[in-house]
Design a protein that fits this description.
335 residues, mainly alpha
């Protein structure tokens, strides 16, 4: 465990130093090809750094933040676009870090995540399909809790708010609502200027403004699928099966159909919330169990994650036991 944490520290020191370089370079160079060329070594480094991590939790988190989010933001910043260019006077800490919820909400989700982790001990007695449902919930709760912890650290140390990641996706009333306004909002906010808007602008010139959102949606989901494949490769080091890409292609096509129907009906025909919400969540979970989770299971990310949880729990238990023993010895030896 100590070796994994050491590698993790080295990787993130490299990330911070690289971002300091990008911050300084951005101040000294004009936006465009020159700044992009200056950022290219860092973008390449961010693609390689997660390969140095063997921990599924640390590798997955690092790959998501630097290979995807940081690289896309640097690409935008190179051409004076995106959140890093919004404020020319942005400070270095905000450059690097760049609606809190009730603590009770997160406390509940921590408890649910703990119960989910313990439920895997009885996986031999649980139907495999139900295990996949647990994986869906596990990914949501673990990401929500992890990012809430990171946001709390950023808020207390630097006085800043990180971008919101989730907005109660279990309340989604459509695929458009799920992907656009509730799930993985960090990714949504970065894919919009990097993929959706450029494709929308090009498609508007070709097919007109009314139907231009359809190819823009499809292009966005195709890029999302490719980036998920890269993150999965960092996790498992296995040859891509492209199932995750097909998952996002399927959802891209489904969302195109949904948007097309809404445009043709002028949004006058809608299902009741108590019908469309279960249908939306069911569609996401069923397609995830079909295409998204099998590649994750083949690289044994679930087994490695649980082993890591067990190692952390054992370390914390041993540390607490030693601290308690030391305190008792001090009290008994005191005159």
């Amino acid at each position: 465990m100590e070796g994994k944490m050491k590698n993790f520290g080295i990787v993130w020191i490299s990330v911070i130093l690289s971002l300091c370089y990008c911050y300084t370079t951005g101040k000294l160079t004009r936006s465009g090809k020159i700044r992009f060329a200056a950022f290219l070594p860092v973008i390449s480094l961010f693609l390689w750094l997660p390969m140095n991590l063997s921990s599924p939790n640390l590798c997955g988190m690092t790959s998501f933040f630097i290979t995807w989010l940081a690289n896309f933001k640097l690409l935008l910043f190179a051409f004076n676009q995106g959140p890093l260019s919004a404020d020319p006077s942005i400070s270095l800490p905000r450059f690097i870090a760049k609606g809190p919820k009730s603590p009770l909400v997160y406390t509940t989700k921590v408890l649910l995540l703990t119960l989910l982790t313990r439920a895997y001990d009885y996986s031999d007695f649980i139907h495999p399909k139900f295990i996949l449902i647990l994986y869906c919930l596990h990914i949501y709760f673990s990401l929500e809790v992890l990012l809430a912890m990171l946001a709390a650290v950023a808020r207390n140390l630097f006085g800043m708010e990180l971008e919101q990641q989730f907005n109660d996706p279990y309340l989604s009333t459509s695929l458009q609502d799920f992907w656009g306004r509730r799930w993985n909002l960090m990714v949504t906010s970065i894919l919009r200027p990097t993929v959706y808007e450029p494709v929308l602008s090009f498609a508007t010139c070709v097919i007109g403004r009314r139907w231009a959102p359809l190819p823009a949606v499809f292009g966005t989901f195709a890029v999302s699928g490719l980036m998920h494949e890269i993150v999965l490769y960092h996790l498992g080091r296995l040859r891509p099966s492209w199932e995750i890409s097909w998952f996002f292609v399927l959802h891209g096509v489904s969302l195109m159909v949904e948007v097309g129907i809404k445009k043709m009906s002028k949004e006058r025909w809608r299902l009741p919330v108590f019908v469309c919400t279960p249908l939306t969540i069911a569609f996401v979970m069923v397609t995830a169990m079909w295409l998204f989770f099998p590649p994750l299971l083949r690289c044994k990310s679930d087994v490695r994650t649980l082993e890591e949880y067990a190692a952390v729990y054992a370390f914390a238990k041993d540390f607490a036991g030693r601290a308690l023993t030391s305190k008792i010895l001090e009290e008994t030896s005191a005159p």
